[in-house]
Every structure is written in structure tokens, then in C-alpha cells.
Specification:
Chain lengths: 107, 107
């Protein structure tokens, strides 16, 4: 799990995959994680998808400018277009600014 | 997926389950979804867990006061204690305020 502090930006991506082109999707998802990690202000990414194809991915950014640069990244935009053409039945992106957090680890 | 608008609060709960007491966990998770939905300012909840036990749950609230009331709800606090005693190896809670969002549905 990432270190996320007050003021950081969470980009919350919720999606329903439809089962089309699983190999292409997997390759693109892996490439996007690598690309995001190379962007300025990147703080982390977490992704969970269940057996029904419902997924939540959260990318964490130092500030709003970093989140917007990621939104506007050309490779990211190209993958979004492929996602609408092929992989998703629906998705939702929500951007939110962190106000506080708490972490617990079994001792 | 929920309707979430600017100013709303996302409570992002990320966790690693350890496989202990799956029936007790499932019952408590279902009860907590019902209880959350009855709280003032509740806007929705979404939960995804993968085969490795990694989960992301996001509950959405009208404002900070509603999110705090949910945090302080006695039944919710009691379940958190059971979660630390039994179900989780680690978890992280992050509270963030929504600034913007976008939704796409296949036409």
C-alpha cells in the first residue's frame, strides 16, 4: 500500500470489464502502470479486480497538476480510447484530494 | 456505480485479508453495508476483492460530518476491532474530498 498524505490527489478509476481482448488488456494495463510510475509527482498505484470483472484502480499523485498531466498524457489517452472501443462496458473516474488517513498493520 | 459529486467525501479502505473466519467476515461485511446505507449523508458503497484477498472498498458521503459520523458509529467501531483481531493482516483508510469526476457507459 502506498504512502498517501494530506493534499495528495487520488484518481479513482472504477470499471466493468466485458471480457473482450484479455491479452491486449493485460499488456496495456501493465504498460500503463510502468508509464504512470515514470510521471512527475507519481505516488503509487493500486488495482483490484474481482472474478466478475469489476475493478477499482487508484493512482496517487503529489498534487492536482501531476494528476492532470497524467490525464493528458498521450499514451494514457490512447489507451483510454482502446478501453472504450474494446475492454469496458462502463467506467467512472473520480478525482479527490486527500484530507487524512490511517494505517494499521498486524503486530 | 455511485453518483459522486464535487465536495462529497470518499472513504477509501484498502485491506489484505488473511483467510481467518470467512463466514464471520462475510456476515459482518454485509451487515456493515446495510448499516452504512442507513446513516445520514450516505451516498453509496463499492467493494472489490481479488482472489489474493486484497480489497478496496470506497464509501461515499455527502460531507465530512457524515464521514466522521460513520467512523464514530459504535457498530462500525466494534467491527473494526474484530477486523484487527481476526480478519486482516493490514489495512489503510484514506479520506479524500471529491473535486471532479467523469463517467462513461457503452452506448
Amino acid at each position: 500500500m502506498t504512502q498517501d498524505g494530506p493534499g495528495e490527489i487520488a484518481v479513482i478509476f472504477r470499471s466493468q470489464r466485458n471480457g473482450t481482448d484479455p491479452a491486449g488488456y493485460a499488456a496495456a494495463a501493465a504498460a500503463m502502470e510502468v508509464r504512470a510510475a515514470a510521471m512527475p509527482g507519481y505516488r503509487g498505484i493500486e488495482s483490484v479486480r474481482d472474478a466478475e470483472g469489476v475493478g477499482i484502480t487508484i493512482s496517487w499523485w503529489a498534487d492536482e497538476a501531476a494528476a492532470i498531466a497524467w490525464r493528458d498524457d498521450p499514451a494514457h489517452a490512447a489507451v483510454r480510447e482502446r478501453g472504450r472501443a474494446l475492454w469496458y462496458d462502463r467506467y467512472e473516474v473520480t478525482v479527490a484530494q486527500v484530507t487524512r488517513g490511517y494505517r494499521w498493520v498486524r503486530g
